[in-house]
């Protein structure tokens, strides 16, 4: 009888239940992160309709900062997971500090560019003249608040990558709770309107960072840390994972500018309704990113422990979990789309537009969720360039083809374009992911 070779205890076998156990803390942490802007949209819609409109116009810029955050976050998470596989907790925080040096420089330059270009952005998005000054001021203040979230992201990804996913989720929960409470108090009690949001973001970041330091102090990562000297290997992680991921999210940010440009001629109700639908879409896709991240974290630990033979079984387990999840979730979102839109949108006209979008696109979220799971895995195991090549035709194709169909048959044509692209993705991306893993880790294909 052939001897069964078991992985070392530091790298547990990752069948579907093991991946689920890692995915659940990531899931509820990400749910909090996604629900937070939805709650804020609901609050702002009830405080001031113009505030909701300006916040909706800001969504493409939000993706720009998300692109930077995700590139650093995932690069740092990969480094922490590899350190876990190698049994070297002392490398985690010095790597994060080096990431902070690079990220702070890039983030600062981008923030200054957006602050300087805010009037031009307002013109591009066709902000009404009476709202232009408020939009420009809002964008500038929120850019400053965003800077505070860089160290929060790095602390959280260090915890998550090394295996402390619950502590990482706690960081998100504390920051979100403080942000929501602050925007509600300031929005209703002071008359600040839109300007309550940057103040709330700053308060949430400070609270989250304090909690993150306390969580790190209780781990081996903190107790065994080495000096915070420059770690050149972070450039490898940034080039292999962070750079392509950032570019992918920049493509998403550019496409969101394009998507807003497509719907802008249809009026403020359509713009706001579409913005709410996009926020709901982000929430619906949270399980896919959680499952993909949990699968990739496990695979990266296996890379660190030199166990390529387990890579393909882990991939199969993770993708199987995604198929099971989205077979149910797509229907669970599509069927109650009317009350769901009413709950989130705030006003009947905006809710009607959100319901229209979900009626056409909502059922294809099942396909999109599986596709996103596969792309997240590729991004985090060294296939960032491939993931970028898969993202570009979807997002830019949605803008170009969507604009053509929107001009021909109305906004419904644009929505049907997105539904077709979602369906096409699931036919291609999972197969390419499997092929990539087999080629990159050939010992696991035997």
UniProtKB/TrEMBL annotation:
<dbReference type="GO" id="GO:0005886">
    <property type="term" value="C:plasma membrane"/>
</dbReference>
<feature type="transmembrane region" description="Helical">
    <location>
        <begin position="195"/>
        <end position="217"/>
    </location>
</feature>
<feature type="transmembrane region" description="Helical">
    <location>
        <begin position="168"/>
        <end position="189"/>
    </location>
</feature>
<keyword id="KW-0813">Transport</keyword>
<dbReference type="InterPro" id="IPR002528">
    <property type="entry name" value="MATE_fam"/>
</dbReference>
<feature type="transmembrane region" description="Helical">
    <location>
        <begin position="356"/>
        <end position="378"/>
    </location>
</feature>
<feature type="transmembrane region" description="Helical">
    <location>
        <begin position="414"/>
        <end position="432"/>
    </location>
</feature>
<comment type="function">
    <text>Multidrug efflux pump.</text>
</comment>
<feature type="transmembrane region" description="Helical">
    <location>
        <begin position="310"/>
        <end position="336"/>
    </location>
</feature>
<feature type="transmembrane region" description="Helical">
    <location>
        <begin position="57"/>
        <end position="75"/>
    </location>
</feature>
<dbReference type="InterPro" id="IPR050222">
    <property type="entry name" value="MATE_MdtK"/>
</dbReference>
<feature type="transmembrane region" description="Helical">
    <location>
        <begin position="96"/>
        <end position="118"/>
    </location>
</feature>
<dbReference type="Pfam" id="PF01554">
    <property type="entry name" value="MatE"/>
</dbReference>
<feature type="transmembrane region" description="Helical">
    <location>
        <begin position="276"/>
        <end position="298"/>
    </location>
</feature>
<dbReference type="GO" id="GO:0015297">
    <property type="term" value="F:antiporter activity"/>
</dbReference>
<feature type="transmembrane region" description="Helical">
    <location>
        <begin position="385"/>
        <end position="408"/>
    </location>
</feature>
<comment type="similarity">
    <text>Belongs to the multi antimicrobial extrusion (MATE) (TC 2.A.66.1) family.</text>
</comment>
<dbReference type="GO" id="GO:0042910">
    <property type="term" value="F:xenobiotic transmembrane transporter activity"/>
</dbReference>
<protein>
    <recommendedName>
        <fullName>Probable multidrug resistance protein NorM</fullName>
    </recommendedName>
</protein>
<feature type="transmembrane region" description="Helical">
    <location>
        <begin position="238"/>
        <end position="264"/>
    </location>
</feature>
<keyword id="KW-0812">Transmembrane</keyword>
<feature type="transmembrane region" description="Helical">
    <location>
        <begin position="26"/>
        <end position="45"/>
    </location>
</feature>
<feature type="transmembrane region" description="Helical">
    <location>
        <begin position="138"/>
        <end position="156"/>
    </location>
</feature>
<keyword id="KW-1133">Transmembrane helix</keyword>
<keyword id="KW-0472">Membrane</keyword>
């Amino acid at each position: 009888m052939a001897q069964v070779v078991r992985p070392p205890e530091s790298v547990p076998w990752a069948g579907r239940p093991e991946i689920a156990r890692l995915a659940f803390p990531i899931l509820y942490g990400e749910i909090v992160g996604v629900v937070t802007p939805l709650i804020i949209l609901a609050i702002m819609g009830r405080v001031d309709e113009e505030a909701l409109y300006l916040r909706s116009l800001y969504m493409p810029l939000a993706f720009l900062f998300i692109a930077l955050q995700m590139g650093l976050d995932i690069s740092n998470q990969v480094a922490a997971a590899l350190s876990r596989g190698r049994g070297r907790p002392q490398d985690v925080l010095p790597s994060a500090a080096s990431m902070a040096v690079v990220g702070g420089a890039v983030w600062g330059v981008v923030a200054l560019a957006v602050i300087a270009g805010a009037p031009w952005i307002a013109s591009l998005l066709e902000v009404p003249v009476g709202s232009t000054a408020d939009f420009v001021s809002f964008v500038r203040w929120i850019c400053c608040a965003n800077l505070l979230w860089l160290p929060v992201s790095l602390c959280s990804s260090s915890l998550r990558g090394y295996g402390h996913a619950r502590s990482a989720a706690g960081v998100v929960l504390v920051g979100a709770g403080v942000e929501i409470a602050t925007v509600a108090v300031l929005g209703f009690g002071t008359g600040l309107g839109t300007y309550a949001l940057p103040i709330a973001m700053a308060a949430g970041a400070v609270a989250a960072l304090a909690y993150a330091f306390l969580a790190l102090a209780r781990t081996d990562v903190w107790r065994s840390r080495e000096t915070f000297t420059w770690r050149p290997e972070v450039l490898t992680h940034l080039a292999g994972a962070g750079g392509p991921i950032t570019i992918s999210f920049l493509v998403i940010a550019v496409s969101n500018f394009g998507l807003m440009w497509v719907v802008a001629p249809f009026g403020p109700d359509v713009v706001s309704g579409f913005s709410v639908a996009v926020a709901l879409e982000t929430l619906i896709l949270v399980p896919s990113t959680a499952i993909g991240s949990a699968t990739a974290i496990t695979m990266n630990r296996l890379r660190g422990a030199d166990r390529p033979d387990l890579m393909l079984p882990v991939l199969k387990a993770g993708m199987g979990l995604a198929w099971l999840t989205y077979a149910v979730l797509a229907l669970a979102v599509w069927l109650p789309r009317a009350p769901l839109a009413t709950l989130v949108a705030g006003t009947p006209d905006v809710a009607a537009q959100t319901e229209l979008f979900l009626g056409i696109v909502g059922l294809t979220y099942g396909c999109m969720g599986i596709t996103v799971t596969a792309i997240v895995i590729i991004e985090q195991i060294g296939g960032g360039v491939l993931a970028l090549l898969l993202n570009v035709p979807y997002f830019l194709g949605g803008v170009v083809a969507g604009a053509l169909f929107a001009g021909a048959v109305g906004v419904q044509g644009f929505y049907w374009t997105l539904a077709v692209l979602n369906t096409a993705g699931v036919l291609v991306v999972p197969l390419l992911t499997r092929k990539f893993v087999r080629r990159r880790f050939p010992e696991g294909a035997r």
